[in-house]
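Help wanted!
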Amino acid sequence: MITLRPSTGTADSGRVRPGAILGVLAATVLTRSVVAGTAPWSPAAAWAGVGALTVGGVWAARRWSAPGGMRPEDRLGPSLGRSLHRGSSWAWGAFGAIGLVLGPVVRRLADPPAPHGGQVVLWGATVTAVVLAEEAMVRGALWRAVQEAHGPGAALVVTTVAFAVMHAPLYGWHVLPLDLAVGAWLGGLRLVSGSVLAPTVAHLVADWAAW
Amino acid sequence: MSSLRRRGAWALAASGLVLTLGWTSGAWRGAPAVYDGLPFNAEPYRYVNPPPGLEGNGAPSSVHITLRPAPHAGGTAFALSTSEAPPQASLIASDGDFLPAGQTVTVGIRPVPAPQLTPVGRPDGNVYQVYVEGGSLRPGSTYTIALRGTGAPGTPRLEHLATGHWQPLPTTHVPPAVYSAPAGSLGEFLLVLPLRGPLPAQGPNAGVVAAVLVVGILLATGALLWAIRRFRRPVAGEPFQR
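Answered by r_m:
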């Protein structure tokens, strides 16, 4: 069945095609992979990955926040106040975080790790930048673009696959099943909460828990 | 419950089931602790003597460097890493840590067959030998050795084969799977997992903990869904999805 959409005037000016978002995603992953190809675990490769993701995330956020791109429920400011009032996005985010860290917590209870080395502040900042960029691109701009074109079910499927595939070049294809499940989990949070805030909170807490 | 929320709940239920099954079965034990960060265990472990079924992982690599040591302790720091991703063995030292017999000295790490002397515990990966050719380690110098674990259950510690015994080193865990320690002599190094004994009396059984947490999360999910359905009133003109 073909649905004819009336022109929405200026609202369409900020609409981004799904292909454009996927292209930016592919470019960030490619940049990270090319640099990582010479020395996969060097600091240069790590920073190239974070840098490419950040640039992609800022681009996606700018397009997404243009008129017609971002819905009111996605805006952090109003959404923050409304969510605090309703509590649902934050509650879903907390619930999603619990679900994601459940496995690692059990593993750590069974086998307490040795003391950590490294710099927790640098780790936290890096992970935060990565999460915000990924969420802005995947469940922000890409989700909105695919949903506008093909509906929320397609948005869930496309963003789940994109989320899993974008992690594979650096971390290896063996993480694909795990990241598919995580992508579906975060997409489910996006659907039930109606906001990108919930998956962002869950993703952020889960990644911080990796320390 | 709206159609969108119903779809979201199904997505959460299905993915939550897969996540739970993956974690409880150990299928993702070698996977990243969670989902992002630097670095992750990206490549299957390469064994000198691979266990059955893991012969296809490839042979572990060696690495060495030839350098002109500083005439005094200290000098310029350098790092050596084998070529796996992430490296299975790394060494961080300074060129002043070595005394050359001539002008240069070669420092390297190589995987070696396990010696006859076995450690108290289960080896977690290959034995790696740190060696110096054309010189020696400067007395009193220390360097850092780091080995990657295989992802087997348990927390390994680094041990050094010295004076006829495997001796534990003060091990630091570098997430998610690398373990490092300072070393003051050359020779063989190995990650060793503690022997599996009876469950500690005061320690939680992982299976019980998992079951309790799974039941807890299911109850929490039900309570959350009930609360949202019970207390959430539709907002007039709410721009919810489409």
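OP: Thanks! One thing I noticed: Residues 120-150 of chain A form the longest helix (31 residues).
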